[in-house]
Description:
The structure holds two protein chains of two kinds.
Chain A: E1 3-7, E2 10-12, E3 18-25, E4 34-39, E5 45-51, E6 58-59, E7 68-73, E8 78-83, E9 92-98, E10 109-113
Parallel strand pairs in A: 2-10
Antiparallel strand pairs in A: 1-3, 3-8, 4-5, 4-9, 5-6, 7-8, 9-10
Chain B: E1 4-6, E2 19-25, E3 38-43, E4 50-54, E5 58-59, E6 67-71, E7 75-80, E8 89-95, E9 102-103, E10 107-109
Amino acid sequence: EVQLVESGGGLVQPGRSLKLSCAASGFTFSNYYMAWVRQAPKKGLEWVATISTSGSRTYYPDSVKGRFTISRDNAKSSLYLQMNSLKSEDTATYYCASSSGFDYWGQGVMVTVSS
Amino acid sequence: DIVMTQGVLPNPVPSGESASITCRSSKSLVYKDGKTYLNWFLQRPGQSPQLLTYWMSTRASGVSDRFSGSGSGTYFTLKISRVRAEDAGVYYCQQVREYPLTFGSGTKLEIK
Lengths: 115, 112
């Protein structure tokens, strides 16, 4: 059974940092591009980042470029999202997903940016 | 960036009827390989999104054949036949033709 389990969310002050993790199992993680997608409360879906299978290529929208960094450890079947200089508008549920087809999604982890 | 624009459904839809959800892209989603890079998702209340179709019309594994995707390079439709209570939720289209990947704003389906 495919599982993606996010962790690391919580309440953080504006300007601070937070690192999310996603533990994958049930599929060959190293063969999949992976992504983070977020959803602000009562809002739609927003793609946040994608990383290639080896980690050599990463992609971001302008809204997070320069502040967020996606990375992976294929030996640990884990995906990460380092979030720096957080803003209130980054408050959202963050989902880990397989970006090769967006066919696998985690349950999401909540990040609240507030003073 | 490619802008995805979704239509609104005349809710609620009676159970057993059909519903069609529309999505328009600001640029053609047809890639040089001939495939159309358009995904459809359903997000039920309190759940993670679920992939329904990819490449515009290919159903994802385990998805009912009541769901069918169609369209052209910039105009797309997801048809749901014989709607059931379990089909209720918000439907999103997403283009994966180029970065940045973008989603439509969502279309809510309510069942009567």
